[in-house]
């Protein structure tokens, strides 16, 4: 692509923060220490997890860079950055999470393939850019459209990024057209992160941000946007990030029997302590993050310091000075909440945190466990 290239080797990688925990060097995949993750509601770019599939693309000429928008539409269009900058700009605070977050802990129960993430393949940022619904209007697709007159039902995002899983082809993923054309879904073509231009690791010069959905759908380094009839047939849509019952293993898996994962599930993680921590008896601050996909708010976070026998409610925090209310207009619906509670720990015990969300009169929860040794 003019203006943007995908290197064939890793000799031109960008600099990264020295405190990142590296899970793979080539391609580079890393996460921050869990304590650093909850140091602030908005995750600094340096501490935002890095999930890559190949060498980081290089922008040679920003003025020549463009995205082709085509497919089952009446009027395809080539968009340059100046065209996108001219559209109304929106800032959306949204948490992105790799679908493989916490894979290391999962593998303690049953081996899971993929990058061995701890609990920090997640981050919360303020993304700035044009709404995808506005971009699609430029090619004749009205807002709140589910199918184009030519039969397009999905929007496919194709990266300049080449990866081995696609046999050297580009990384790609898709979302339903109904989501892409809904302004309330806040899907962005983002060119800023936390008030600054995207850095190379996070998709410079342009990426998709799909709030509430696993990070694999927020494609970086955009080259093409295609309106297609069926969902994307790429590797990461069809042969990864799907959910199967325990009876399925790598010998009998049938990928076609499951739909690709989209909204990420409710998550709750203690970050102020490691899985096994040794401390002195006394008051201990227990803090972490809780998040849910699909814009669903966190109704409550409970913490137990006796292995689940009794529970106490933790405070939930988003923006400083603004009380967090689940699914309220004052809260960031696409973002995580940080939680905190202080407890007296007098002896070795197991600490558990659970997040609860209220949806369609059903309580949904996910727990995390940690063992605390007191000396």
UniProtKB/TrEMBL annotation:
SUPFAM superfamilies membership: E set domains (SSF81296), Oxidoreductase molybdopterin-binding domain (SSF56524)
Pfam families in alphabetical order: Mo-co_dimer (PF03404), Oxidored_molyb (PF00174)
Residues of the Oxidoreductase molybdopterin-binding domain: 53-235
Cofactor: Mo-molybdopterin
Keywords tagged on the record: Metal-binding, Molybdenum, Oxidoreductase
Gene Ontology MF, one: molybdenum ion binding
Domain of life the protein comes from: Eukaryota
Keyword Metal-binding included in the entry's annotation: yes
Biochemical pathway: Energy metabolism; sulfur metabolism; Sulfur metabolism
E.C. no: 1.8.3.1
Record-annotated Moybdenum cofactor oxidoreductase dimerisation domain positions: 260-356
CDD domains attached to this UniProt entry: eukary_SO_Moco
PANTHER family xref list: SULFITE OXIDASE, MITOCHONDRIAL (PTHR19372:SF7), SULFITE REDUCTASE (PTHR19372)
Protein name: Sulfite oxidase
Source organism (scientific name): Glycine max (Soybean)
């Amino acid at each position: 692509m003019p203006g943007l290239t995908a290197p064939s080797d890793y000799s031109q990688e960008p600099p990264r923060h020295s405190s990142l925990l590296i899970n793979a060097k080539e391609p580079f995949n890393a996460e921050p220490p869990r304590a650093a993750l909850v140091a602030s509601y908005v995750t600094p770019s340096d501490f935002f997890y890095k999930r890559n599939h190949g060498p980081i693309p290089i922008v040679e000429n920003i003025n020549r860079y463009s995205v082709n928008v085509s497919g089952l539409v009446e009027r395809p269009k080539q968009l340059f950055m100046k065209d996108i900058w001219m559209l109304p700009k929106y800032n959306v605070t949204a948490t992105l999470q790799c679908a493989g977050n916490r894979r290391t802990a999962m593998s303690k129960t049953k081996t899971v393939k993929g990058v061995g993430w701890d609990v920090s393949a997640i981050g919360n940022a303020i993304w700035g850019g044009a709404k995808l619904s506005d971009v699609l209007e430029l090619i004749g697709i009205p807002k709140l459209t589910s199918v184009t007159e030519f039969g397009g039902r999905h929007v496919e995002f194709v990266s300049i990024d080449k990866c081995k899983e696609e046999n050297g082809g580009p990384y790609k993923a898709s979302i339903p057209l109904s989501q892409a054309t809904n302004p309330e879904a806040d899907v962005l073509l983002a060119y800023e992160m936390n008030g600054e231009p995207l850095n190379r690791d996070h998709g410079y010069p342009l990426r998709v941000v799909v709030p509430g959905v696993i990070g694999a759908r927020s494609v970086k380094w955009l080259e093409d946007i295609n309106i297609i009839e069926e969902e994307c047939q790429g590797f990461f849509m069809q042969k990864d990030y799907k959910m199967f019952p325990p009876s399925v293993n790598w010998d009998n898996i049938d990928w076609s029997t499951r739909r690709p994962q989209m909204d990420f599930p409710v998550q709750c993680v203690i970050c102020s302590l490691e899985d096994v921590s040794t401390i002195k008896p006394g008051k201990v601050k227990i803090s972490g993050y809780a998040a849910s996909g699909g814009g669903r708010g966190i109704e409550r976070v409970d913490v137990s310091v006796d292995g689940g026998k009794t529970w106490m409610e933790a405070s939930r925090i988003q923006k400083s000075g603004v009380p967090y209310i689940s699914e309220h207009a004052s809260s960031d619906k696409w973002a995580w909440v940080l939680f905190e509670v202080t407890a007296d720990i007098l002896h070795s015990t197991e600490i558990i945190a659970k997040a609860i969300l209220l949806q369609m009169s059903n309580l949904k929860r996910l727990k995390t466990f940690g063992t605390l040794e007191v000396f």
